[in-house]
Amino acid sequence: MKISVVIPAYNCSETIEMVLDSVCAQTRFDLIEEIIVINDGSTDDTDRVIRNYREKNKSLPLIYVSQKNHGVSYTRNRAIYMAKGEWIALLDSDDLWKPKKIERQVDILKKNPNIRFLGTVSKMKLIVSKKEGLYKLNAKELCIRNMPQTPSIIFHKKTGIKLGLYNVEMQYGEDINFYQKFLTIDSYYILVEDLIVVGFQKKYFAQKGLSSNLYKMHMGRNKNTRELYKMGLIPGWYLHLMIICNWGKFFKNYVIQKIRRSEENKLSLGRKYRNVVKKLFNTKNRRRLENYDFSLLCNNCVGGVISHELGVRFNSPTVNLFMEPSEYILFLKDLKKYLNYPLKEINDEKGYPVALIDNIKIYGMHYSSFSELDNLWKKRCKRVNFNNLYIMLIQRDGCSDEIVYEFDKLPFKHKMVIANKEYKDVSSLIYLPELLENGQVRDLCQYQRKLTGKRWIDKIDYVSFLNKRD
Questions:
Q1: For 5-21, what is each residue's pLDDT tens digit?
Q2: Which end of the chain has the smaller Cβ count within 10 Å, N or C?
């Protein structure tokens, strides 16, 4: 079984590398014949990013085509016709695959050779009935819930072409319009497993992209429902019922979208004011900074925030993540060893990626996927400047007195512990009573007040700390 991956790309310079990384991270990458990326007339830096990626990964079976803008349906159809693989795996340029996505789907296809279309969902509930494992969807159920999402789908190429592929005249609902054709051959299957990450840079559905036009999406949904009726897959009474239900869904989503945008607009003026104040403060700090190539390690996000506010490159892998204080000490004690260890994904049910480096657990709270965490960890580990190293410990989240003393004894020249009380014999101590909250050091990344541009970490003169080179 050989698979062609199809990725239409449009203005995705910030995401396409992570998308491709998620393909390369597949446990059954050996089954992937080719990765076809078609740039649909992007106006940003997408072309350069993809060409650079291909140059850096010359052994990768990446086929790249650039064309004038024709829309996503035309682009997908073109890639599918180009494909050499027997099966087509769809992926969008702002979505990710989890490592076992292809492996799990291929397992299902081999055990069920009659399947010609297979998608996945993390959870599946139809009205009051919860579904698990492999499930064959019928037309009435598809009307209730349009699924699966595009990046989860793998389908038999020849069958898809025979059914007509995507309707290039449709801009909204064109994906389900194609997928529902597989209902005519009784082969519309869903695997209930969490194997993809959708829209990992969106805050919520309909924030941007085609789905932001709710009315046209609604009309596309109604068109698809009518076509199911024309194909004889649903009766007339059910068609009318679904049209009424679709209008109800449209109004519900419309109200939700308006509420969210209204809330954002209320905050926008305050945010703009705060950003102006923050910019002035950060500009002052940046002018004071004399040391630019430092690596700042920390047990939580504070180090990354400091680097960001100072406008310097992240030369530390401990950005946007958290380690337990005791494990952070272990990490620092054998730093070079751990920086060379590969990350291993574990299922911790946290809602964000969690990984192990040997025996140390890393919590990637601000990463959308393990693939993103792993990719940036590797890049930043290589940047660590051992000749210009600064170490921080924030005493919170179970950080005991013993850990503080152990940290202070570490053989690093430049270190700082922001503590929840005074320690007379700790040389790296920073203690400020105003930084305490509920018996521990507060979240230093939070702002001191709603309209101030200063965070709690700004109570500390970290610029002077970083400027110490001897």
A1: 999 999 999 899 999 99
A2: C
